[in-house]
Specification:
Length: 419
């Protein structure tokens, strides 16, 4: 009982510290050597409470009083989309306040070839209020079609950034990712936030261009990781080739005076990464190859013969950093314990830097964690188990950073473990 009381006293101290700490500075060029206070919030405490008794829980509980600071181990995935609309100013600010040392803008383009922050070129109907703007929605690639109860057909629509101009894009407001497949009207279609998320912080949702994100991230003093999203239109688009698209992303950072060392460009396309390595080496040397192994036939993280490229081949092509999904890096041993996969071990052996994605993406883990935990579902039973996963990724796999939908949880862990 005494131990539990101490734990709650420490929790209270930590929460009060978050209220009394100085606001996070917005000064430019914040050095990584400067400790920037982070506000981790209550969620990491909830996760620690939910951990099984043991050494990990004891270690994390001892850190309850903080203090907590920004960490380069933490990458803000799309902002803070567990509770904030993704790729919005509000979400980015939340991610930075929770201690992310790196913020992400997924980059795609508009009809007039302006670069903007969206996870997918054609997700506007799910992540913005475009369907409430009749004059803009009429330009959508696939207009809204209501659900049909008689045939069982779901509602459908597809709206792409390349369907509209930058000026039209800036009229939209970000919303929580989701849709209502049984909608009979456009307004009903937008009402589809997953039950385990919330619309509490979705009342504003300021969309961002790449240039605006660069300026914001610079003001926050964080590193920047833009992902060049795969076009969902034929390339060249309005005369812009894929290579020009990749170059345009880099040129945006050069124009803003951002040092290449502060930019971690990423792509699921090895061709994009190789372009940066060959044509913009200052940026290419730390570019991230996002590996989506399941796209290879019969991919198995335990069977190198099923991988499209060996780790040695990637290294030979100049790749220095690889970023797979969490499940690709983990497996279960004979005792059902979570351990590094063959994929993870081979990446380490090749000397590749490893970044994992995406923590806090799956929602409640009571049923095994779903896609992101598919290789270890049998060991995942509750939310606290994600801290076990994080611990293995950090200590056994040796990831250098992890993308998170709620950076505060990883910031707590990183500070506690000295990462």
């Amino acid at each position: 009982m005494l131990k539990e009381s101490v734990w709650y006293v420490l929790l209270g101290v930590a929460l009060l510290a978050g209220c009394t700490a100085s606001p996070m500075p917005l000064a430019e060029n914040t050095s990584v050597a400067v400790k920037v206070p982070a506000q981790v919030g209550v969620r990491p405490y909830y996760l620690v409470d939910d951990l099984d008794a043991g050494a990990l829980k004891d270690k994390l509980a001892q850190c309850a009083a903080g203090p907590f600071y920004r960490s380069n181990f933490v990458i803000s995935h799309r902002g803070a989309p567990l509770l904030f609309p993704e790729h919005t100013k509000e979400g980015y600010l939340a991610g930075a306040r929770m201690g992310a040392g790196t913020l992400e803008c997924d980059v795609t383009f508009t009809k007039d070839k302006a670069l903007v922050c969206r996870h997918s070129q054609c997700d506007l109907a799910n992540t913005t209020d475009i369907l409430l703007h009749d004059d803009i929605a009429k330009q959508c690639r696939q207009p809204f079609s209501p659900a049909n109860a008689a045939t069982g057909a779901d509602a459908s629509v597809q709206c792409c950034t390349s369907d509209i101009t930058l000026a039209q894009f800036k009229q939209l407001k970000g919303k929580m990712d989701g849709f209502n497949p049984k909608a009979s009207t456009p307004a009903e279609y937008l009402n589809g936030t997953p039950h385990w998320r919330s619309d509490l912080y979705a009342q504003t949702g300021t969309l961002m261009t790449l240039d605006e994100s660069i300026a914001l991230f610079k003001s926050l003093g964080v590193k920047q990781t833009p992902e060049l999203k795969a076009p969902m239109v034929a390339m060249p688009f309005a005369g812009m080739t894929q290579q020009q698209y990749a170059q345009k992303l880099i040129d945006s950072y050069r124009a803003a005076g951002i040092s290449a060392d502060e930019v971690l460009a990423q792509s699921f396309s090895l061709a994009d990464v190789r372009y940066w390595i060959e044509h913009t080496p200052a940026f290419g040397k730390q570019a991230i190859f996002l590996d989506e192994g399941e796209n290879s036939a019969n991919f198995d993280p335990m069977q190198p013969s099923s991988w499209k490229w060996s780790m040695a081949q990637l290294k030979q092509q100049g790749v220095t950093t690889i970023a797979p999904a969490i499940w690709m890096l983990l497996t279960l041993d004979a005792n059902g314990e979570i351990v590094p996969s063959r994929y993870a071990l081979e990446a380490k052996r090749a000397g590749l830097r490893i970044i994992a994605w995406s923590f806090e993406r799956s929602g409640p883990l009571a049923n095994g964690g779903g896609w992101y935990y598919q290789s270890i579902n049998a060991a995942i039973h509750k939310d606290g188990d994600m801290l076990k996963v994080l611990d293995v990724l950090a200590k056994q796999v040796g990831v250098s950073a992890i993308f998170s939908d709620w950076p505060g949880s990883v910031t707590y862990y990183a500070n506690c473990m000295g990462l």
